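Appendix C reproduces, verbatim, an entry submitted by the partner laboratory led by Prof. M.T., so that reviewers can inspect both the input and the predicted structure.
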Amino acid sequence: MNVFSADVALAITRLGLLILLGWFMARQGWVGAHARQPLMRMIIWVFFPAMIFSRVSGNPLIASGPQALLYLGAGFLMIVTGYAVATAIASLFKVPAGKARRTFAFSAGVNNFGYLGIPVTAALFDKDVVGVLLVHNVGVEAAVWTVGVAMLSGESLRHGLRKLFQPMTVALFVALAINFAGFGKSAAIVFASDLCLAVGDCAIPIGTLLTGIYLHEIIKDFRLVSDAPASFGVMAVRWLLMPLLVLAAAGCLVTDPSLRKVMLVQAAMPCGIFTFLIVEMFKGDVLVSLRCSVITMLCCPLVTPLWLYLGSRWLTLG
């Protein structure tokens, strides 16, 4: 496995170029703020559910309930651990208490599990491992919309549980039920999966363009060299502590080979680029969240391949 391959470099470069394209489209006035909500609805209600269904139904790596629970649980625990680590670092680096600290913990604790994680996984491994990643990512989403939202907004955890009943979760449960019933390779399911694959392929590019569109609206107030506590804190979380913890768990606690591959990629990811939209939704500090995303994305072309290389040696995957 060559983590310094052109495919990995292209996955990282493509993400950056799509963000820039979205920003350029907004700057030119081709799309405005009014386009954000329709695009968001298409991504959440159509594109990502279709992608999940196409990758999970008929996937031989997700053929039993215990396997699926393992992948879901690993995603959930990774994010909860990220929140705990980011909260401790925020206190250590003296990020201001209150809204800024809660936002830092939320944003630094979530890695780029989808928009970059999926293309990098696809570049390194086969499509069945991508299917495992998508199940893992639903566990991530569960942690984000329950523990994460409760921490960010001060809402109760019970209120956050209601947000789990969303299209992506339903698509996952339907696909898993088909797998467990042994219908994954039937003609009707294969046809539906192929159709969903064509639709789901829109999820990453459209979602990344949307990030660039929104970035144009808020970047004017962003200063790269300000707020040193948050800047150095997020680098400590995402480029040091979380990679070490995720890789240690993968090497010492996990025996499933597909999950080890997924955890390798997840350990090397920067902060999520979509988190500042959730932060805005729940009245957090958008500029702190944006700082976490921008700084780790700028380091990504160097740091991500380095952690992929070190992790693949540790896990003996290459």
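DSSP finds 14 helices and no strands in the chain. Additional entries are available on request from the coordinating office.
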